[in-house]
Amino acid sequence: MAQKPSIPKGTRDFSPAEVAKRQYIMQIIKSNFEKFGFQPIETPSFENSDTLMGKYGEEGDRLIFKILNSGDFLAKADENLLNNKDSLKLTSHISEKALRYDLTVPFARYVVQHQNEIEFPFKRYQIQPVWRADRPQKGRFREFYQCDADVVGSTSLWQEVELVQLYDSVFSELGLEGVTIKINNRKILSGIAEVIGASDKLIDFTVALDKLDKIGEDGVKKEMTEKGISAKAIEKVQPLFQFTGTISEKIDKLSELLASSEEGLKGVAELRFICDSIQNLGLDKSVLDLDVTLARGLNYYTGAIFEVAPPASVAMGSIGGGGRYDDLTGIFGLKNMSGVGISFGLDRIYLVIEELNLFPETVTSTSTALFINYGEKEALYAMKAIASLRKAGVKVELYPDNAKVGKQFQHADKRGIKFAVIAGETEMEKGIFALKDLISGEQFEVDFIALQSSLQK
Amino acid sequence: MAQKPSIPKGTRDFSPAEVAKRQYIMQIIKSNFEKFGFQPIETPSFENSDTLMGKYGEEGDRLIFKILNSGDFLAKADENLLNNKDSLKLTSHISEKALRYDLTVPFARYVVQHQNEIEFPFKRYQIQPVWRADRPQKGRFREFYQCDADVVGSTSLWQEVELVQLYDSVFSELGLEGVTIKINNRKILSGIAEVIGASDKLIDFTVALDKLDKIGEDGVKKEMTEKGISAKAIEKVQPLFQFTGTISEKIDKLSELLASSEEGLKGVAELRFICDSIQNLGLDKSVLDLDVTLARGLNYYTGAIFEVAPPASVAMGSIGGGGRYDDLTGIFGLKNMSGVGISFGLDRIYLVIEELNLFPETVTSTSTALFINYGEKEALYAMKAIASLRKAGVKVELYPDNAKVGKQFQHADKRGIKFAVIAGETEMEKGIFALKDLISGEQFEVDFIALQSSLQK
């Protein structure tokens, strides 16, 4: 035990300062979720393995943390698998539970399991950690929080409108100016695939188109050709290379471009409703933009697709994303439950706010004042004041030992505590306190009422 | 997948109503922790196995959930262990991480790992789930929250005084009348063991003495004799059979009884300081009582021992406990770090508050008002009001579809929403809203300002 202890790679300890900042962000997300009518649920950290396995693809299955069965887990294990050291197949014999990989699958499981208690449409939010056995790297952890809001049981496009407003409301309250909420629609992507006549080339197409800013029209067209997209197809979508203007103008262009695709036009109509409504209702500090290259979650999203980019001054990937999936709960046997939801990327939002210096100074868990300890009798005098201050909601504490006064002041300083309260023999006799502002160095004699009102400021 | 999905035994889903109530309790605990100068930390859900194993005894080791190594975990596993199906020994070969079993050991690990960044004395709180592979039963779960506050790096008895106040402050704010904070001291137990001349019989002694109310003095003495405690020893502690009166009187009796034990008298002095201070400072709704049968955590506590009993009207075990341990961080190589801490039992506190009907009516995550949806144009009118109300902090929502009005009202009813706002064509033309109180059935025409002030009440 001489070795200094450590924690598993990809996990983190959070100091008091970090917890306070994380809670500040989560509190704003949570209060906005509730203002928008979302209600919290919580699901267990681990689920039965068959609830999770097979829901995230082969790669996902590999990244799920499995929990070893308790007790004599090998007793019933297949001997052949053991002898062959077949880790993959043995897993299901010695592990029946696994840590949550995201919040969406547990939510779908929850909805199906509790369908008779739930009043639909059901707007739920969930802020809980998830675990992935991913290779840790900068900004990617094996344990991290997801903050999700989803509605299930309604196909109304007002949900999409509200989710755009919700993003705007949260990021505006966090003080972020110029967040871009990018929107696209799966049906528009399908329409484009129809038009270029190659749905298997859709990802190649959007990936190439996304590079327009960087490599220019010719570069993009070259890449598309290399990927096997025909010159004729590229010609058909020529308007996408001059895809500028307001959202309304962009939607008009798409409407023309996708005129031959029924599916595509459905997507245009959905987009138009959402964007027009947002235009009518207005956003606070964010901007809504249409981005036809947005193709996240292509395998499960069926309608709107969202992704949020931080203010342009910060070099960082998306800080949120989401979309509509028409069959959320089908995997658990409950058909025809359309869902739409968004997620907030807590860790990245934290980094953005830190970089832009937007955490309010008041975000701290430290005490407002430290009472200096001058010995048993004086400490009791201090403790009486402390009890009253705490009742009034003021965060205060007594230095626990009658140590050298210099050491006690140093403690306040290192802890970032703003005030010291001196309650020695002199003050005690006069029934007063000396309040010292540790930043300005000023010191005043105050009675209890003045002390309380000073510390409550 | 036709089978209805379920969750692992011993785990729970929490509905919106349950989450709201749990958060209400946790919020009160948290805000009191901070008022008392404790700061939050968070540690990872899983730790390296060697951080946890061997810290909770053999039984504890068995109850720790182990996480299977990712990838081809059998590749490096010992063939003999596999062939012999030696589950116990194989575990450390195929599992390097384990889920947190409590918050104390991770805290000790945190203190040692971050000792150079921490300013001592360090008052930390931690509210996080822990996991135990215990047999699930009523009130015992495999995943549950612990709410701990500990101070490390100070031997001052003011800490114990503050922890008693902290218990009182939390339970009083929760509305509980007559919670009993029971206190004892390890050194007093040592003193009693000295006096009865059999330290190996201490637990038998306290267990028997604890039954005084139920089986009477003769019954207790009979049990003690059966357990091998001599008649002479029982005679020596005769005062404990009439151990009544105020705390001060009880302490006086102990002082006499333990006159021959240096250790015991140290315990008496500590108790006296704590109890005198609390008497001087006063408690709100709780009662402090001395209970010499309190012997929890006998193996690690070295000073004060705490346990909290709910109001007598509720039949329930302890709702909190804690104590002083002189060598918290020694297991990780950092000596001479005294710690003292307390824990709140969230699940039991929840049941007590539920049973006494003490959850405020306002504890709910549901919306204050539902706007009835009369179609696209009207919904946009409603959405404008909704956006303003949300900015003012009011929780409101629009029924997403233009469904039958009766169905929409039913939805509000089932969700426990108090008000419906009718914004149909008539209201829209007049620029007003009809506000319907769904409990009284009353309905008023209001302008936006009146609407907002009604819903903010």
TrEMBL record, chains A, B:
Q: Which SUPFAM superfamilies match?
A: Class II aaRS ABD-related, Class II aaRS and biotin synthetases
What is one GO cellular-component annotation here?
Answer: cytoplasm
Predominant cellular place of this UniProt entry's protein? cytoplasm
An example molecular function term from Gene Ontology annotations: histidine-tRNA ligase activity
Q: Which residues form a coiled coil?
A: none
Q: Where in or outside the cell is it found?
A: Cytoplasm
Domain Aminoacyl-transfer RNA synthetases class-II family profile residue range list: 1-400
Q: Which GO terms describe its biological process?
A: histidyl-tRNA aminoacylation
Keyword terms of this UniProt record: Aminoacyl-tRNA synthetase, ATP-binding, Cytoplasm, Ligase, Nucleotide-binding, Protein biosynthesis
Q: EC?
A: 6.1.1.21
Q: Which reaction does it catalyse?
A: tRNA(His) + L-histidine + ATP = L-histidyl-tRNA(His) + AMP + diphosphate + H(+)
One Pfam family linked to the record: tRNA-synt_His
Out of the domains of life, which is the source? Bacteria
Main EC class the enzyme belongs to: ligase
What does the entry list as the binding residues for L-histidine?
D102, L103, T104, R132, Q146, D150, R296, Y300, Y301
Known partners and oligomeric status: Homodimer.
Q: Which PANTHER family match?
A: HISTIDINE--TRNA LIGASE, HISTIDYL-TRNA SYNTHETASE
Q: Which family does it belong to?
A: Belongs to the class-II aminoacyl-tRNA synthetase family.
Q: Which HAMAP family does the UniProt entry name for this protein? A: His_tRNA_synth (MF_00127)
What this protein is called in its record is Histidine--tRNA ligase
Q: Which gene encodes it?
A: hisS
